[in-house]
UniProtKB/TrEMBL annotation:
One of its GO terms (molecular function) is magnesium ion binding. This is 3-isopropylmalate dehydrogenase. One of its GO terms (biological process) is L-leucine biosynthetic process. Catalyzes the oxidation of 3-carboxy-2-hydroxy-4-methylpentanoate (3-isopropylmalate) to 3-carboxy-4-methyl-2-oxopentanoate. The product decarboxylates to 4-methyl-2 oxopentanoate. InterPro entries: IsoCit/isopropylmalate_DH_CS, IsoPropMal-DH-like_dom, Isopropylmalate_DH.
Length: 350
């Protein structure tokens, strides 16, 4: 079987981590008898530099005709002073919108292999297994009107009922395959849009009588994630709250360099680490490639249906962590040997 993968390396550490994911993918497909054909596309700062736009049309077209998109990260200081339409982040937001990727799935679990480390607390973290379902193409990121005239700046946090319904269905369906609990996170005590969110989620919940639904304000959720993250199964939330809470949740696992994500809802899924382009460490060969390798594994599982290959990658990662290999971000988490980005990729591939 042959699958076509659109590859977007992007900026900063993007190219470094995507190379390692491809190394690992090539190693599993040799074992599992399928073939991946990669086609490179530009997005972000690098696309602006070469094509004058952060999201060239051929990138959208290329993604649409592929079976899945594997993406690194975009952004960097070099492009931060450009007008917003030329900024790398605008390219990514437009790509998500163009591909119809309204649901962003972010699993967070804790590798037992990292739990012995002094900085993690096993009594709080052992067995954490939560799943953030973040709405990705609406909310304050896209709401109009928006403006900044140098004196007044504003954005609009807007959700329509159908937008809330469809993301709520994704959360309830995810919960049905897990522990059957959904915690919907909002700020309904203050925001009108959150009250609509809450009412709508309550309505959708009636279609899933087996699932237990609770609601939590976002400020409390931020606190509960640190205090007792084991209480959560599926967290359902909007675009900006989900962005913030999932970065917070990443530290439960030890490093933001560990967490993968899948963006789905359209014809083609996009798989990327939750972190950004980490300009502070780009080019040094120290970035943790595991989040991207795990994203590649989600791609095999959810987009291509190559479950055995995905399982292989995940057990290879466990084994490598068990053996004490760590990138620099996890050096204090029981490392026997601190290795570079490329070494980590090669060990997992082997
Ligand atoms: P970031 O996630 O790039 O970095 C935050 C911190 O985590 C940094 O200290 C970085 O070194 C560290 N880090 C991130 N990934 C790592 C990895 N794989 N291994 C080891 N350490 C890692 O977020 P930041 O610094 O706020 O943003 C940098 C740029 O990335 C900005 O231009 C931002 O707009 C962009 N960005 C892009 C995203 C994307 O492409 N999906 C998502 C978030 C930010
Ligand atoms: Mg983020």
């Amino acid at each position: 079987k042959i699958y076509n993968i659109a590859v977007i390396r992007g900026d900063g550490i993007g190219p470094e981590i995507v190379d390692e994911a491809i190394k690992v993918l090539d190693s599993v497909c040799a074992k599992e008898n399928f073939e991946l054909r990669y086609e490179d596309y530009l997005m972000g700062g690098v696309a602006y530099d070469f094509k004058g736009t952060p999201l060239p049309d051929e990138t959208i077209e290329g993604c649409l005709k592929s079976d899945a998109v594997l993406f690194g990260a975009i952004g960097g200081q070099k492009w931060d002073t450009l007008p917003r339409e030329f900024r790398p982040e605008t390219g990514l937001l437009k790509l998500r919108k163009s591909l119809g990727l309204f649901a962003n799935l972010r699993p967070t679990s804790v590798f037992d292999e990292l739990l012995d480390a002094s900085t993690l607390k096993p009594e709080v973290l052992k067995g954490v297994d939560l799943f953030v379902v973040r709405e990705l193409t609406g909310g304050i990121y896209f709401g109009e009107p928006r403006a900044n005239d140098g004196f007044t700046g504003y954005n609009t946090m807007i959700y329509t009922k159908p937008e809330i319904e469809r993301i709520a269905h994704v959360a309830f369906e995810s919960a049905m395959k897990r522990r059957k609990e959904v915690c919907s996170v909002d700020k309904a005590n203050v925001l009108e849009v959150s009250q609509l969110w809450r009412d709508t989620v309550n309505e959708v919940a009636k279609e899933y009588p087996e699932v237990t639904l609770t609601h939590m304000y976002v400020d409390n959720a931020a606190m509960q994630l640190v205090r007792n993250p084991r209480q959560f199964d599926v967290i359902l939330t909007g675009n900006i709250f989900g962005d913030i809470l999932s970065d917070e949740a990443s530290m439960i696992s030890g490093s933001i360099g560990l967490l993968p994500s899948a963006s789905i809802g359209g014809k083609v899924g996009l798989f990327e680490p939750i972190h950004g382009s980490a300009p502070d460490i780009a080019g040094q060969g120290i970035a943790n490639p595991l989040a991207t390798i795990l994203s590649a594994s989600m791609m095999l599982r959810f987009a291509l249906g190559e479950i055995k290959a995905a399982d292989r990658i995940e057990s290879a990662i466990k084994k490598v962590l068990q053996d004490g290999y760590r990138t620099k971000d996890l050096a204090n988490y029981g490392a026997k040997e601190v290795c570079s980005t490329t070494q980590m990729g090669s060990i997992i591939a082997d």
